[in-house]
Design goal:
273 residues, single chain, two-stranded parallel ribbon, D-Maltodextrin-Binding Protein, domain 2, alpha/beta, ten-stranded mixed sheet, 37% helix, 10 helices
């Protein structure tokens, strides 16, 4: 009798462990793809978040397409990506068309010049006069006797929208060049001692100098406390009421959680909260 009971128990145990083995083999981890598209200013932040997320979820493929805020908003609206990336607030017509913007972080827009430029800072009024063509020579600002070369972003850029909104220069800027990415603006200014441009604080490199604005330097701390006035939101844009895939929802939840704050900060932006 004891042998029969032992045999039954052994059979039950074997069936249980075999079932567990099948469950583990089939895998319960997250898989799929997360496609993002939009703001070039958000590159460092989004890539850092994507890297952290896929490190924890190796079966998920994460992609980022740097096309600019306007293009990213269009891409998510047309269903060509899971999540759009915008470095400006959504317009009324965009929310009315069925899009939702969730603030991921805040970013300062740094006013940048070549490191050889001796001017340390500008006021908002001076920036406005520079970009609208009222001030055209650096000597009028304590700099060299040289024509100011105005560099900016293309129409539809979230960085341009944020800069022009704060400085009151919408549709009035006298750009010498309108470039299609944050990186292009930084590179162009770094190569021209008379140039001035603007770029995401998160993307600033050693090849350019960020000016103070109203005496305040652009830093994570001054963006967070509001003393640096040229700033804008970084948004994750989704279709209102449309369910994301499991992988995309998991990324969205991670990116907007407190767990992602240190990653966002390390990438040069200011996490919400």
């Amino acid at each position: 009798m004891k042998k029969i009971v032992a045999a039954i128990l052994a059979a039950i145990l074997l069936a249980f462990t075999a079932g567990c083995g099948r469950s583990a083999a089939s895998g319960t981890g997250l898989s799929g793809q997360v496609a993002t598209d939009g703001s070039t200013s958000m590159e460092k932040v989004v890539n850092a978040l994507g890297e952290a997320f896929t490190s924890a979820n190796p079966d998920v493929k994460f992609t980022y397409n740097p096309t600019g805020s306007g293009s990213g908003i269009t891409a998510v609206s047309e269903g060509r990506c899971d999540i759009g990336l915008s470095s400006r607030a959504l317009k009324d017509e965009e929310t009315a068309s069925g899009l939702t913007g969730t603030v991921l972080a805040y970013d300062g827009i740094a006013v940048i010049v070549n490191p050889q430029n001796p001017v340390p800072g500008l006021t908002l009024d001076e920036i406005k006069k520079i970009y609208t063509g009222e001030i055209v020579n650096w000597k009028d600002l304590g700099g060299n006797d040289a024509e100011i070369v105005l560099i900016g972003r293309e129409a539809g850029s979230g960085t341009r929208d944020g800069f022009e909104s704060v400085t009151g220069t919408e549709d009035a800027c006298k750009y010498r060049q309108e470039l299609t990415s944050t990186g292009d603006v930084i590179t162009t200014v770094s190569q021209n001692p008379d140039a001035i441009g603007y770029a995401s604080l998160a993307a600033i490199k050693d090849g350019v100098k960020a000016l103070t604005v109203e005496g305040v330097a652009p830093t994570e701390g001054t963006v967070k406390d509001g003393t640096y006035v040229i700033q804008r939101p970084f948004l994750l844009v989704t279709k209102t009421g449309v369910k994301l895939s499991d992988a995309a929802q998991a990324f969205f939840d991670y990116a907007t959680s407190s767990d992602a704050a240190s990653v966002i900060s390390a990438a040069g932006a200011v996490a919400v909260g």
